[in-house]
Every structure is written in structure tokens, then in C-alpha cells.
Amino acid sequence: MITQHFKLQNISCPSCVMHLEAMEDDLKGVRKVSVNFKRQTMAVEYEEGMITAGDIARAVSAMGYTATPEVLTVYNKEKGSTWTKLFRS
Questions:
Q1: If one looks up domain 2-86 in CATH, what number appears?
Q2: What CA–CA distance (Å, rounded) separates 47 from 45?
Q3: For 67, phi and psi rounded to 5 degrees?
Q4: What percent of the chain has pLDDT over 90?
Q5: Does the N terminus or the C terminus of the chain have fewer Cβ atoms within 10 A?
Q6: Mean pLDDT of 53-76
């Protein structure tokens, strides 16, 4: 399971937040989407190998918004640890 953080642009109302958070029902492999309207950020929890951060950014773009990946945080269930790396496209 991976949690990818994105910086958002073009979200202007609570309806935008609801629209983006609905991606968890529409994109295969996406488990949870959390949007912070005030900070203009989004965290997406997804299954590695089923979808990529680039796929998510393209889906957001298709909705009329811009999502720029920030850092990638990976949780290793077997070891119970996390590690973070800078996103590279």
C-alpha cells in the first residue's frame, strides 16, 4: 500500500473536494482519497502495481484540476516500517 501526496490547483469549492474524493470509487487500485481544501492538497492511498501516481495525476487532470505529486510514502506491512522518497516522473 502506498500513500502519495499531491499539491492541487484549480479546486475552488467543497464540491470540488467531493468530486476528487469520489475517485476512490472510480479508479481501480485506489483505496482512499483525502482532500484538504484549505491547504490545496490531496493524499491518495493505493495498491502498488495496480495504478501509479502518474495515472492518478492524469485522472485528476481529466476532471479539470491539476495534481502535482510531492513525496511518496511506502508502508511495508511485513516489516511494519515506512520509507519516503521524492517522486520522479
A1: 3.30.70.100
A2: 7
A3: -125, 120
A4: 69
A5: C
A6: 86
